[in-house]
Amino acid sequence: MAKSEDSEKPGRIKQLRMIAQIIKQANPKGMPIVFLSAVGTLAVVVVIGLVTGYLWYSVFIGVLAALTVGLVVFGQLAQRAQYSILHGQTGAAAAVLQGMRGNWQVTPAIAVNRDQDLVHLVVGYPGVVLVSEGPGNRVAKMLKAEKQRISRVVLGVEIYDVQCGDGEGQVPLGKLQRHLMKLPRNLKKPSVNEVKDRLRSLPRNMPMPKGPMPKGARMPRGPKMR
């Protein structure tokens, strides 16, 4: 058991180094920000300890607080860096959606047109969510067609359509997870599973897009729906 834990440590260190390189590539000031946030937290706690007369106790608490703050900032910067890397790639929204926590089922690219615009299918507590990638004037028809097709299978279930992109009225890639998390909870777990079963039989009537989808783009997990 000890050997397996020891073998995992180099892998974790290597992973952290890789993430640090990604942060540095996306934002050269990223790692200094992580370091300064941790040091600043430690300094504030130590000063409080000097004022109150609990110096050694504050040093211990300060180290723990500094590590916590540093890891939080590190995680946020890593998430932003990964969003910047995925931005503009075909299937970027699918990679972000597949990183969501909770009872979600994501089926990438249930529809695609000749311009490589995509529509992804998401099933969760809100019901059914169709998420598109591409300019609004092109994906609107795709979303409407898929909404009509799916509504025949999931009668009475709420169907939302979300356009992911940088255009007017669209949800930016970095805010996509949060947007879906804020949707109302219309279904309970048994109903969600029932809708998933219904949609598994739905044929995929469009070909997969050309070019590589962003596989293995391990997005940081978002918060669970409350």
UniProtKB/TrEMBL annotation:
The keyword Acyltransferase does not apply. Keywords: Membrane, Transmembrane, Transmembrane helix. InterPro entries: DUF4191 (IPR025445). The chain crosses the membrane at residues 33-51, 57-78. Residues 189-226 are annotated as: Disordered. Residues 203-220 have a biased composition (Low complexity). The keyword Lyase does not apply. This is DUF4191 domain-containing protein. It comes from [Actinomadura] parvosata subsp. kistnae.
